Backbone:
């Protein structure tokens, strides 16, 4: 057994990388445990969009404002390039849809997207098929490279004295409703506090220690191309995205027991046709979302890829037949589209930091707030609103 640390961070995607850095920045001794040597999951395959214009409540508007202030200077702070930029988000409106009704559905966000004609949408993004849309919404949108941002957080974390250890966390050390560390196969790592940032696997890991949390996940699928000569100027997504409805309807109280065992699909899959091109010329095209309760469920990737190419091809014909590879990852979410952040009822010294539906707009400020609260003598009232215990 190694020497105990102040904090053990389980997971090293964007959530674990950010919170580990912020904790060590506050002077804590921190051990970050990660299962894979190379980046996996949604932090590997995510689009990298930062919707800091999309806050709808005092809580989300505050966090989006903090993210808007942090991202432009984050590369300098971490001493590594996150590839932050701003670009046009073009939210396509299907040809059989009322554009004004769709625009009205965005009326409550802090910066409502602007409704534009088909011609204006095609000026913003020349690769769009004008016959497939009846208009679009557009707003300036943040963007970064998720992998490079995780690397930047990691380098800053280790530079400040943080420790990184490879290993799959298989359980928690606990006694008398108090967590004292984690188990990695045959090894044990003691820690005064443990924060679980394991994304979709967080629920199962906590459940193995008898801890119940209301967290769920989708299987997200996309196609990634090699660098191509075609230039996509904008981030393209459907204005009437189905993903958030899928999350809400698959995580009701009635369906919750299904998530404790494999083999279920609470509701049918959806496909939100979109695309983004990274600065290296690669494209990410997708995406299908499925609510399969088995994280290792088999998926017909041939049929899935065909469906994605068909629907994206209707909107962006030049992308339909580009060479590319189907990929799959898990994305964690909660019942109310807000993350699960904080301590867990009736169990001491274990925390959850997961379930982010709009991650890049709120992960950096929430990681900073979490770390500041870890050494403070008073509670952060904003974090209290995100407690995992709110569903119990």
Residues:
């Amino acid at each position: 057994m190694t020497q105990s640390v102040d904090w053990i961070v389980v997971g090293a995607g964007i959530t674990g990388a950010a919170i580990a850095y912020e904790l060590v920045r506050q002077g804590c001794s921190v051990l970050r445990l990660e299962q894979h040597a190379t980046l996996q999951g949604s932090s590997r395959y995510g689009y990298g969009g930062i919707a800091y214009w999309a806050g709808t409540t005092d809580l989300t508007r505050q966090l989006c404002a903090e993210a808007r202030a942090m991202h432009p200077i984050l590369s300098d702070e971490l001493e590594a390039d996150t590839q932050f930029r701003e670009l046009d988000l073009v939210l396509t409106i299907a040809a059989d849809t009322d554009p004004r009704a769709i625009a009205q559905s965005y009326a409550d966000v802090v910066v409502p997207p602007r409704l534009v004609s088909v011609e204006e949408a095609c000026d913003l993004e020349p690769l769009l098929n004008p016959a497939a849309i009846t208009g679009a919404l557009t707003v300036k949108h943040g963007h970064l490279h998720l992998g490079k941002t995780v690397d930047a957080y990691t380098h800053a974390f280790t530079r400040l004295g943080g420790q990184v250890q490879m290993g799959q966390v298989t359980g928690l050390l606990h006694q008398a409703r108090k967590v004292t560390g984690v188990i990695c196969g045959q090894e044990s790592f003691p820690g005064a506090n443990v924060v679980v940032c394991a994304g979709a696997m967080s629920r199962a890991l906590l459940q193995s220690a008898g801890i119940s949390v209301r967290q769920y996940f989708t299987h997200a699928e996309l196609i990634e191309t090699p660098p191509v000569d075609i230039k996509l100027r904008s981030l393209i997504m459907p204005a009437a995205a189905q993903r958030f409805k899928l999350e809400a309807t698959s995580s009701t109280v009635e369906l919750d027991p299904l998530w404790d065992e494999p083999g279920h699909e609470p509701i049918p899959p959806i496909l939100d046709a979109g695309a983004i091109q990274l600065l290296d010329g690669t494209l990410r095209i997708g995406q299908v979302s499925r609510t399969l309760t088995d994280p290792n469920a088999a998926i017909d990737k041939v049929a899935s890829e065909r469906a994605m190419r068909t629907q994206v091809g209707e909107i962006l014909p030049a992308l339909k037949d580009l060479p590319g590879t189907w990929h799959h990852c898990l994305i964690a979410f909660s019942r109310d589209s807000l993350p699960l952040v904080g301590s867990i009822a009736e169990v001491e010294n274990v925390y959850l930091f997961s379930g982010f539906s709009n991650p890049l707009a709120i992960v950096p400020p929430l990681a900073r707030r979490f770390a500041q609260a870890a050494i403070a003598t008073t509670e952060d009232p904003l974090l209290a609103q995100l407690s995992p215990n709110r569903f119990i």
